[in-house]
Amino acid sequence: MAVYRRTYTSYSGVLTPPRSRFLVLFRYSRKNLFRSKFQTGFFVLCFFYPLLSLIAIYLAHNLSFLERYSGSNQLLTIDNKFFFVFITVQGVLAFMLTAFTGPGLISPDLANGALPLYFCRPFSRAEYVVGKASVLAILLSEITWVPGVILFAVQASLAGSSWTWNHLWIVSSLVLSSFLWIAILSLLAMALSAWVKWRIVAGALLLAVLFFGGGFGQAINAVMRTQSGHFIDVVYLIGTVWTSLFRIDNDRGISSSAAWIALLIYCGICLALLVRKVRAYEVIK
Amino acid sequence: MNMAIQLGAADGTSQQAAAVPGTPVIELKGLSVQFGRREILKNLVCSLRGRAIGLLGPNGAGKSTLINTLLGFYKPSSGSASVLGHDIRTETGKIRSLVGYMPENDALISKMSAVSFVQMMAELSGLPPAAALERAHEALFCVGLAEARYRELGTYSLGMKQLAKLAQAIAHGPKLLILDEPTNGLDPSARQRMIRMIRDIRDSQQLQIVLCSHLLRDVEDTCEEVLILNQGRIAHYSNLEEERKANKRFLELETYGANGDFTHAIEQLGCECATTANRLKMILAEGIEIRDIYRIAAEHDVRIRRLNFRRDTLEDIFLKAMEG
Questions:
Q1: Domain count, chain A
Q2: Looking at the complex, does the CB of residue B9 fall below 8 Å from at least one CB of chain A?
Q3: Do B127 and A11 touch (CB under 8 A)?
Q4: Which B residues in the span 92-121 are in contact with A, Cβ-Cβ below 8 Å?
Q5: Minimum distance, in Å, between the CA of residue A139 and any CA atom of chain B
Q6: The pLDDT of residue A156 is above 50
Q7: What SS3 class is residue A112?
Q8: In chain A, which among 119-138 make CB contacts under 8 A with chain B?
Q9: What is the extent of the structural domain holding A169?
Q10: 3-state secondary structure chain B
Q11: Across all residues in chain A, what is the average pLDDT?
């Protein structure tokens, strides 16, 4: 019988390009996310409304159906409001998906003290953050702007070139509003999970930041008789940006440019908090 | 038949950073590290070239800080250092691509299986997925976790976790393996297994090892060179391998009535002496016999109570360094 003895040998094969290594984290983290049946189920559920919207677009162009049931073909209007409602519904679902999945991305690494093992390799902190953020970014893209653009393409193909040229700006609104929401959610979820390290608490904190921020902002506005309380309400800020991007007439307390700046500052703060925590060893001075 | 299985080396050109040939494994050039106002490492100057280098020192001596600084986790406050010829200030990426690191603390993601964890770590070091998977299996076989490689890391015992940490450190085929307290918390048999594994890896001649420990036996059993740190300073450097090879005759005397004259007379014969309490340790010079020592003792009215042929153990060296 042969006795096999494993000995150490060095590796002399090819290496992957350093710039693509953050995708390793993306691959493993995404695989890990879909291990949970609940998360997989919820992710599938997020495609229910896009499917409903697709049916609505089809029906809006099916004259015989509309005439039979409503006597008018103006019952379903596919315009900027339709896509605004779409992105609002998907935005809420994106938030819920982030609350379930986001905190689980970084907190296990921090809780298990695994960061030194990542950073003792030719793999930087920035690549780590990009790798982890890309999981959420792609996951949320799949339920926000990607189906949104597909719906627009379907509508464009059914409505003709005139409608398409007149409403082409909706595509950029869909993409831009989704990007901003994804950036806010991803950075907030990762920053909270990096500081709290406990997955469930980080998820709860994400809910608290978004909902209690609103309540607190309203309280400030009522007591101080001002509109500046809205600046601590992330949901209000994103709503202001979205209404402006989709050209919806709605009287908001603050201007869209101020909301943009406030949201970008929030992103910066989250990034700074994240960078401060994501390091091999914490130096206590 | 005894067959060695090579960890799957793929064809193609390696893009891994190369160790600069003929350079020291670690070279410290006035390295100091400061956290806030507290200076942890103080002006370390040293050049280490051995196949297996031991970093010894009591708890809080600065061993782990030195390793973390070499890996680029901490920035030096002054001075510099190089690892395999690459500067730690400017070539951190190259150093990290050459190094395998086994940290002291528990660093494994408990929900992952050992094989996927080691594979992921190998991929992060730049191995393509197929090669990383192959090497992950082989590394786990190599450290003796073959049967448990599909189990979640959270279910491992402490000894198994240490082995899994070793597996992730060697999976990508590093040129330098840094082991921070590898036998921490292991029972005697697990410790023996770990030491044997480290010796096997060292003897494969394909990588160099830096072993950081406060356990003298671990270092003595595996290392050729020893750097002893105390309170952030180099307390002693010793080349154990050269001393073993030197074939010197070490003598330890327990005397009564010895004074400086007796020691001086022995030194006049060309012997190296060191005195501790009523003990005199010496290295006999060429052509000097024991009878010469007795003769000088008689001349100086010194009684020799005990005479042993005994070289300094690492424990002696360590204790002396701590006293110094």
A1: 1
A2: yes
A3: yes
A4: 93-94, 96-97, 99, 101, 103, 105-111, 116, 120-121
A5: 21
A6: yes
A7: coil
A8: 119-124
A9: 21-277
A10: CEEEECCCCCCCCCCCCCCCCCCCCEEEEEEEEEECCEEEEEEEEEEECCCEEEEECCCCCCHHHHHHHHCCCCCCCEEEEEECCEECCCCHHHHHHHEEEECCCCCCCCCCEHHHHHHHHHHHCCCCHHHHHHHHHHHHHHCCCHHHCCCEHHHCCHHHHHHHHHHHHHCCCCCEEEEECCCCCCCHHHHHHHHHHHHHHHHCCCCEEEEEECCHHHHHHHCCEEEEEECCEEEEEEEHHHHHHCCCEEEEEEEECCCHHHHHHHHHCCCEEEEECCEEEEEECCCCCHHHHHHHHHHCCCEEEEEECCCCCHHHHHHHHHHC
A11: 88
Per-residue pLDDT at B13 exceeds 60? no
Q: Any CB–CB contact under 8 A between A268 and chain B?
A: no
Interface-testing mutation among A36, A109, A121, A281, with chain B (most B C-beta atoms within 10 A): A121
Predicted TM-score of the model (pTM): 0.83
Q: Can you tell me the ipTM of this complex?
A: 0.85
Query: What is residue B15's predicted lDDT score, i.e. its pLDDT?
Result: 47
Residue B138 has pLDDT above 70, yes or no: yes
Identify the CATH number of the domain defined by range B247-323: 3.30.70.100
Residue of A4, A15, A127, A199 for testing the chain B interface, max B β-carbons within 10 Å: A15
Look at residue B312 in the predicted model and tell me its pLDDT: 67
For residues B69 and A4, the model is more confident at B69
Q: What integer pLDDT is reported at residue B4 of this predicted model? A: 39
Minimum CA–CA partner of B140 in chain A = A6
A154 in a structural domain: yes
The string of pLDDT tens digits covering residues B15-61 is 456 666 678 999 999 999 999 888 999 999 999 988 999 999 888 89
Task: Tell me the count of A-B CB pairs closer than 8 A.
Answer: 160
- Whether B26-242 shares its CATH topology with B247-323 is answered no
Give me the architecture of the B26-242 domain, per CATH. 3-Layer(aba) Sandwich (3.40)
Q: Do the domain assignments include residue A179?
A: yes
Which of A10, A14, A280 is the closest to B13 by Cβ? A14
Touching check for B164 and chain A: CB below 8 Å?
A: no
Q: Give the residue from B1, B64, B124 with the most A CB atoms within 10 Å of its CB, the best one to mutate.
A: B124
Portion 4-23 of A in contact with B at CB < 8 A: 4-16, 18, 21
In a domain, A72, yes or no: yes
Contact between chains at A11 and B173 (C-beta distance less than 8 A): yes
Residues for chain A: how many in total?
285
Domains of chain B: which residue ranges?
A: 26-242, 247-323
Asked if the structure places residue A16 within a domain, the reply is no
